[in-house]
């Protein structure tokens, strides 16, 4: 490029060379410093433009006319540091002579070869009209100045630094782009923007992957219900608000698995965790408000269900994206599919495929067919709309989706074409409104939960977390039979509008398998949602005379003797006089009333049991020892902490408030020949379909001797045959049982059993408003309700239905010696000390030698603490039992032991009577069985016995 000076006429001086000489490096030399040309021109030296003359010498720094001169042209402003020249940079020189020659208009001579650049300026009249600077066709820059002036160096010099040169190039490029083209980005801008976006996306990805972690599962996703099943596997109840039951993938049919994949993600096993196109599309539609759209893989849907919430936001989508990628690296495809099928919503309040299979088809997930699985998979897209039962108008759309799923299964090779051709739409069952805890369900679930917590199988937190599948021992046919029996015998006979007392009537019942201790049926009340208390498990009503068999069992088990010294057997005679004071009790006077104040006089134990004579059993409890009676009751199955189970004579009359369930467990022990198995309500427990919870061992163990239990059964059979429970004969089975009535008729009981089933029923009175116990006088239109009425009737109807179709079995009993025969009380040994004032030569039956090994106490001490006597005990030669001899008399008394061929009973009895005179006991009889002699001495005395009921009871 050449800078050329022109005159006023606009003509250029063409005598100068067209180009300045180049340096040896092939590059043009750098221009002279600004102001050099101006100084030379100002000097006006002729011929300066032609090059330096020999006289030319560089002016000293700061000399006038030089660039360094203060205030000279090209000089820096005062106070500013002059710009330093870069070392080695070429220097622009213009001599004053040359400049002067140019200014004078003399033709300049070519610059010497050593010059790097030549600047020529001329004075002119000014630029041509309308023009200042311009670009010629040959690329030369033409500069014109007004006449009489010289151009400054700053106006003529090229850019002095790199920044200015870059700006000049940019301006030149813009000059070439005119009009609308100036608005378009250049290719450099497009490429730069693309690279920037790529870098930003990559950076955002790595940042998000680092920041977003896999969170803990959300509460709703892990919340499950506990499912309770009958023994046959049918559904009993489900607790909890969330209808979800997790199962393992192996417990879901392959057809159902493939159907879900065909509907939602056919390439699930081969694809990555995310589908980028679908994810971007869904996020864009959500952000722009174009509606909700999934487009997600099964992995992403599982992340949304299990870890995140359901809201459609960009933030949630971003988290879903990164969590899905991480989850795909940590979990197998099978684990992800299992989680997805357990957390997806299928409608009908069903979360997870197991709950859905039950809700729509009443089957487990493992039993789903291809057609059923395809319909459930179709529901994933629109659970409510595709429910053809709730929305029959949408059946066409639902079938179209169903066909889509089946076709997808064919495409993937999961279903053959022939199977596809034969597929028929599986109509789901009608919607069933969840019954919740209504009816018996609530009672049963509560009883099961109490059992699990009480036996330390699960705690309350475990149950609250849910996810348990609990198979109970309850049998649905028997459960239904129990409900029907109560309805027929009690509920349907109530007239709550016309009889206020009928509002108080409650019923409870439990049936147990004697051989296993399993609870087979339970009746808790009319409706759990209306009456919260479970009448089968509550412990606030006296059991009444149903406790008496425990007293007799204890007597036989302990080889107890009457006050007169007779071994207590079914044929032992007692005094059944009403309000008769018990003998031999030092704790105070106690004279219980018989029912309806009836006095029976001499009466055998068997007859006293048939008629439920209170005075006889109160005396028997003293003869055995109240503490021994309590011990036996606990061994049979009553809890040791049963309220009011206290060692007093009144224990025999049932002052304890055991539950119906407790009594059923104890009676089941009698039915099982003295073997007690702790009751159980649970057959099996699994956690989330696989993990099985260990249950305690409930195998029956011998609690009392078989002879003791079987002899009691033989006595209780008489109660059903000719006693207060003849209504139980309607069961049509050999049965044994005992009736009972609480004080003031607040509860009536019947506890009975067959060889196969032990069942206890109670009818109770309770105010529905206050919860207070109420008498049942006049209920159901009857003067009074006792155990032989509605309770025995319920028992008979239930037992008949529960054992329908099973062979009739008789009791296989091993009895106490002599118990198999029934004798008249006038011929039988009396247990009443007042009935014999002379020595007895024929005693009762001795101890059972066949039992062996047990030590049984004899009679209670009769003398005062000051005067103690000792008696000789008789040895049991036939068996292993050693019976204590007579206890001390008031003054003295000794007995001689007799040895028999088989069992040897006690020999001489204790001295009888009270006061100063004491009668000696006779000798025991020799031969087969040794008999007891005289009765134990008893002490009278006054005082009150604590915790004794005063009301009439059976």
Automatic annotation (TrEMBL):
Residues 33-52, 88-116, 831-842 have a biased composition (Low complexity). It catalyses: Preferential cleavage: (Ac)2-L-Lys-D-Ala-|-D-Ala. Also transpeptidation of peptidyl-alanyl moieties that are N-acyl substituents of D-alanine; [GlcNAc-(1->4)-Mur2Ac(oyl-L-Ala-gamma-D-Glu-L-Lys-D-Ala-D-Ala)](n)-di-trans,octa-cis-undecaprenyl diphosphate + beta-D-GlcNAc-(1->4)-Mur2Ac(oyl-L-Ala-gamma-D-Glu-L-Lys-D-Ala-D-Ala)-di-trans,octa-cis-undecaprenyl diphosphate = [GlcNAc-(1->4)-Mur2Ac(oyl-L-Ala-gamma-D-Glu-L-Lys-D-Ala-D-Ala)](n+1)-di-trans,octa-cis-undecaprenyl diphosphate + di-trans,octa-cis-undecaprenyl diphosphate + H(+). Residues 241-409 form the Glycosyl transferase family domain. It comes from the Bacteria. Residues 163-175 have a biased composition (Basic residues). Residues 1-175, 816-954 are annotated as: Disordered. Residues 510-769 form the Penicillin-binding protein transpeptidase domain. The keyword Transferase applies. Keywords: Carboxypeptidase, Cell shape, Cell wall biogenesis/degradation, Glycosyltransferase, Hydrolase, Membrane, Multifunctional enzyme, Peptidoglycan synthesis, Protease, Transferase, Transmembrane, Transmembrane helix. GO terms for biological process: cell wall organization; peptidoglycan biosynthetic process; proteolysis; regulation of cell shape. GO terms for cellular component: outer membrane-bounded periplasmic space. Residues 843-944 have a biased composition (Gly residues). GO terms for molecular function: penicillin binding; peptidoglycan glycosyltransferase activity; serine-type D-Ala-D-Ala carboxypeptidase activity. The chain crosses the membrane at residues 186-209. It comes from Streptomyces griseoaurantiacus. This is Penicillin-binding protein. In the C-terminal section; belongs to the transpeptidase family. In the N-terminal section; belongs to the glycosyltransferase 51 family.
